[in-house]
């Protein structure tokens, strides 16, 4: 690997490039935050920093039962889907990376197939299936397809992590008197934790952001998630522009994602396996 | 503590390859036995079968008299040291060493006492609270050993435990391993590809090749009386010299000259036990500068002159290298050995002869030297199957023996 160029000119060049990337990524976020603090009158004045600060938009969305209910749905559905997908994914990925069982290639192939399948083509059949089975417009009706599509992602990410863990560690644990289960729980799982958390974040974001399934497979507040609820926003009255409220809601639903990432980021410690084997 | 018996143990993989062919081995209680051979010879597979990490296809494995073929590793009560050390990176040194004891559900105080004791033996007391990532290679190796010894297992299995250390540390640890084993008196099976380690450590050495046991014996026996060409070439450093030899007109014709044939070999030749085309093997120390040989010894040997390539002075002796024209011995076994050694390709049909001479020798590079060769120490091999034809009741008899 080439040494990193540390001359001032190079530092300035890379600094500028980094700045452009950061600005490019953050401007829309900041813009929507700015909109959420503006009053209806100043909404379209084109100022980046609001001249007239107001918290009315936030007050408004939390007053409507519609948004609060959707937030609860979103959190519940995303968390349950994430937990189930990660638990199943961990077990499947462990099996794929460690064992040689009949149909392994088939399993990996099928899960890849699912990940590649255009979701939009599944919406109609799923809609019909769920209406006939009574799953339509329920939490389970969203959790099931989310798990289906999150599992391939989880399996792929996690099996990559498991493959990094030296197999010798497991053999050593077995020689030290551990059963297969103990070896997994006490030695492999703690080392795979960063991978599990990374996967959890990815799966959570996937479920949290989904709009397609959420709008097709729900019809009432019973199971409508935030991205869908946003699209149904009308403002306080029918004639009021809901831009401010939508912006406020958008800011609010970004917060759980940021918290989730910040909370787990500390656990994603790179190089946790260093020192296990001579490397 | 227990003896380990391998009774016709065979390992066959599902794809049809056989890694270990019907190995019979009796390892006595407290014995230090070495499995040695080039990579892919089945030594690690054999060790893993003893450990229980690989299934035994056929045959029986007994530890302390009990058949353990179908027992899980944890029920065999044996400890293993891995080549990669396989320390648990999320645990401190203390936790690593306590892990097997914790799994055995020993009381806390006893775990503490045993870990401290093992740490003292291995000089790890100051590092008990460190993580493996913050240890040097040698320290990690000692932690791996510590994890094995805390349990007082029936046997230790070691899979090339020193091969990741640098040369100096390896020699140091070799002595420590040997001392530790003597002190604990635990049956130990040690796998290595390094013949020096095999010679210096083991009570007995098992030489393996392509899944077959070639010879089992104490290091000196293997060195002096190898049963075949492979063992002869594998054991010893620098390795044995091999030259082609043909029986012609009652003499043994070799690239260095015609050697006399003793009456024993004559009889075997007459009986058709020995082919006329042979491979001659002589160890480097069985040569000497002819100028330093007294008359009594001169009679037991054979003298020839050859151009000197290179002289390496070790202080205590001199290694003198010769190139012998028309001297490349051909046998399948030799090709295997060359492949294992990483094969320094010589010009075709010339052999490199390595000799060890006394430090007093005045042999110079790029001159011609007169060399004495001890006829009693010459071994002859059948190039077809590698068999040592000079062995008589397990003892090498030399070429001129009556």
State Rg of chain B. Answer: 25 Å
Classify the oligomer. heterodimer
**Number of DSSP E strands of chain B:** 22
Please provide the ordered H/E string of secondary-structure elements of chain A: HHHHHHHHHHH
Shape descriptor of chain A = globular
Query: Structural class, judged by helices and strands of chain A?
Result: mainly alpha
| End-to-end gap of chain A | 17 Å
Task: Flag low-confidence runs of chain B.
Answer: none
Based on CA atoms alone, the radius of gyration of chain A comes out at 23 Å
Task: Assign the structural class of chain B, choosing from mainly alpha, mainly beta, alpha/beta, alpha+beta, or little secondary structure.
Answer: alpha+beta
Helix content of chain A: over 70%
Largest sheet of chain B: 6 strands, mixed
Characterize the structure shown:
The complex is a heterodimer of chains A (279) and B (402). By secondary structure, chain A is mainly α. Chain A has two domains: 1-54, no CATH class; 61-277, MetI-like fold. Helix content of chain A is 71%, strand content 0%. Chain A is built from eleven helices and no strands. Chain A has helices at residues 8-36, 56-63, 65-98, 104-116, 120-133, 139-164, 167-175, 180-209, 212-216, 226-231, 243-265. In chain A, helix 6 (139-164) packs across helix 8, helix 7 (167-175) packs antiparallel against helix 8 and helix 8 packs antiparallel against helix 11. The longest helix of chain A is centred in the N-terminal third of the chain and has 34 residues, at 65-98. Chain A is globular and about 70 Å long. Mean pLDDT of chain A is 85; it is low at 271-275. The model of chain B has no long low-confidence stretch (mean pLDDT 88). The longest helix of chain B has 18 residues, at 167-184. With 402 residues, chain B is of the alpha+beta class. Chain B starts with a strand and ends in a 6-residue tail after the last strand. Chain B is built from eleven helices and 22 strands. The chains are: A mainly alpha (279), B alpha+beta (402). The interface between A and B is medium-sized, with 25 and 33 residues.
